[in-house]
Amino acid sequence: GAVVSQHPSWVICKSGTSVKIECRSLDFQATTMFWYRQFPKQSLMLMATSNEGSKATYEQGVEKDKFLINHASLTLSTLTVTSAHPEDSSFYICSTKFQENQPQHFGDGTRLSIL
Amino acid sequence: AQSVTQLGSHVSVSEGALVLLRCNYSSSVPPYLFWYVQYPNQGLQLLLKYTTGATLVKGINGFEAEFKKSETSFHLTKPSAHMSDAAEYFCAVRTGANSKLTFGKGITLSVRP
To answer: Is beta strand B87-94 parallel, antiparallel or unpaired with respect to B32-38?
Structure first.
């Protein structure tokens, strides 16, 4: 069964709206979670590393104030796209790394469409 | 720095034919290598991984991959393609337990009846 639950799976909203995406680790504690963005027919681009109890680490070129990440518990990380615009439309995927030397497990992704 | 190269963007095979998806990596230290599959509007599912030990790795759904250090390759194969194998496939590399996962650009596999 799934080890990572991501919600919602699909969001359509108006420009200027803020959207929150949740990523939950099931049955285990995840001190580290990753957030990726994927454009159509392209690979996953790491946006940020979410660390439980501390500030997220953002990749170069990713706006911290635009993509707010909160990792307040060992099982939940959230990504909030603030004041979303059409160019923010994309597929957002979270993943966890719950054990050293083990692969990451991915959520099913969130399709965000900004009108 | 680490990187992954997946040549080509699309591979088409007939049902029952051999599947070969190529992946080459660049890493200054021994890598951890992964293949993931992605179905439309879904996240990534791990097919198989190489960390240490046996260089021929078997994964789910009949896929396997062989780590060849001399060729810096980790090609994915399946002896007989099934229609359900049609998806996007990503090769990825990590160079340590705490390093980031770097993905190739992915390759679309189509299976013809």
So the answer is: antiparallel
Tokens of A24: 């939950």
Q: Cβ contacts (< 8 Å) between B104 and chain A: which residues?
A: 43
Q: How far is CA B94 from the centre of its chain?
A: 13
Provide, as residue numbers in chain A, all residues whose Cβ is less than 8 Å from the Cβ of B95: none
CA-to-CA distance for A108 and A2, rounded, in angstroms? Answer: 9
Does A43 contact B104 at a Cβ distance shorter than 8 Å? yes
Size of interface A-B (CB pairs under 8 A): 48
Q: What is the pLDDT of residues A14-46, one digit of tens each?
A: 999 999 999 998 877 888 899 999 988 788 899
Closest-CA residue to B100 (of A50, A46, A85): A46
Angle made by CA atoms A107, A109, A115, in degrees to the nearest 5: 160
Whether A84 contacts A73, CB under 8 Å? no
Please tell me the distance from the alpha carbon of residue A71 to that of residue A51, in angstroms, as a whole number.
Answer: 6
What average pLDDT score do residues B44-59 get? 92
Question: A39: which 2 tokens?
Answer: 């454009």
Instruction: List C-alpha distances in Å: B77 to A51, A92, B89, B105.
Output: 36, 29, 12, 18
Is residue A48 within 8 A of residue A58, CB to CB? The reply is: yes
Q: Which residues of A touch B98 (CB under 8 A)?
A: 100
Cβ distance A108 to B43 less than 8 Å, yes or no, reads yes
Q: A42 and B101: CB-CB below 8 Å?
A: no
pLDDT digits (tens, 9 = 90+) for B81-94: 999 999 999 999 98
